[in-house]
Write a structure and sequence with these properties.
Low-confidence stretches: none
Number of strands: 10
Structural class: alpha/beta
Oligomer: single chain
Number of helices: 11
Shape: globular
Mean pLDDT: 88
Strand order of the largest sheet: 6-7-8-3-9-10
Strand content: 15-25%
Length: 296
């Protein structure tokens, strides 16, 4: 049975005016994408590939120059539907400081539902639930500016969750974080998705993209590739040609496979992104060569 489509982009294009205003720059060009409800989709691309523009189009921050985007059947170009659209698709940006508006964490999370006219008792429930979901309930009375980058980003996510969206778009939301902060956010994202929320992650970190169900690769405003992580990362040459890498564990198994010692004697499956799977194949590699090459 086909899954429900929550976002449908139909032959969309978007152009930015250039500095001299004489010609427009096509950031997105004739793109068609369908996002299934409950899926976890990562969108990759080098700087200027159109991935962040696409994210803003999904949320209605930008409206296509050509084509249409529908969110649960709502046309994003219809101003009368913008309120419902923003309630359905929430967006988290790269810098959490740009989304934090209050001096107390719980007040910040309550800001959006208050502006939606939600009743105080319901707001209290939503704030508590959102903070618990992102693991920040114990910081409810803290000042946001005293939190770490990862904690601030989790508060920003909680502020979106308090609106009770069905889909959350994260536009390079881990780009300004250290590895520990990135890990915090990825755990939160995966937990949201496991609980049924549709997640669209715009990222330039290959290891993050590998955790998604599906990867869409953007290049020069167009969809270069679309498929499961294993499929996308099985062709590192194609990614390299457009300025992208593969996850470190994928690169390691590719290097091992191409080694003169190993070549033609042992093969790793293409596109490995799981460390446990890679470890299993490396153990088989040692077994195939015998105890002489096994680390002591």
């Amino acid at each position: 049975m086909p899954k429900e489509i929550i976002i449908s982009a139909e032959n969309i294009s978007f152009e930015y005016p250039t500095d001299d205003m004489s010609v427009n720059h096509a950031a997105v060009s004739n793109v068609s994408i369908a996002i299934e409800k409950g899926s976890f989709v990562a969108i990759l691309g080098h700087n200027g590939s159109g991935k962040s523009t696409l994210a803003k189009l999904f949320n209605g921050i930008l409206v296509p120059t050509e084509g249409k985007i529908f969110v649960k059947g709502m046309d994003t170009s219809d101003d009368d539907l913008l309120f419902e659209l923003r309630k359905t698709v929430g967006m988290v940006f790269q810098n959490p400081d740009n989304q934090l508006v209050a001096t107390i964490v719980e007040e910040d999370v309550a800001f959006a539902p208050e502006n939606l006219g939600v009743q105080p008792a319901e707001i209290r429930k939503r704030v508590d639930k959102a903070l618990e979901t992102v693991g920040m309930k114990e910081y409810a009375s803290h000042a946001p500016h005293k939190l770490s980058g990862g904690q601030k980003q989790r508060v920003a996510i909680a502020g979106i969750l308090a609106m009770e969206p069905e889909c959350i778009v994260l536009d390079e939301s881990t780009a300004m974080l250290d590895p520990a902060g990135r890990a915090e956010i990825m755990k939160t994202i995966k937990r949201l998705n496991e609980n049924g929320m549709t997640v669209i992650l715009i990222t330039h970190y290959m290891d993050e993209a590998a955790e998604a169900d599906r990867i869409i690769v953007m290049n020069d405003g167009k969809v270069e590739a679309d498929g499961a992580p294993r499929k996308i990362f099985s062709e590192p040459g194609k990614l390299s040609a457009i300025g992208l890498d593969v996850p470190q564990i994928t690169e390691l198994t590719e290097l091992l496979s191409s080694s003169d010692i190993i070549k033609n004697k042992f093969s790793f499956p293409k596109g490995i992104t799981d460390e446990d799977e890679a470890a299993d194949y490396i153990e088989r590699l040692f077994d195939s060569f015998g105890a002489a090459v096994r680390p002591q």
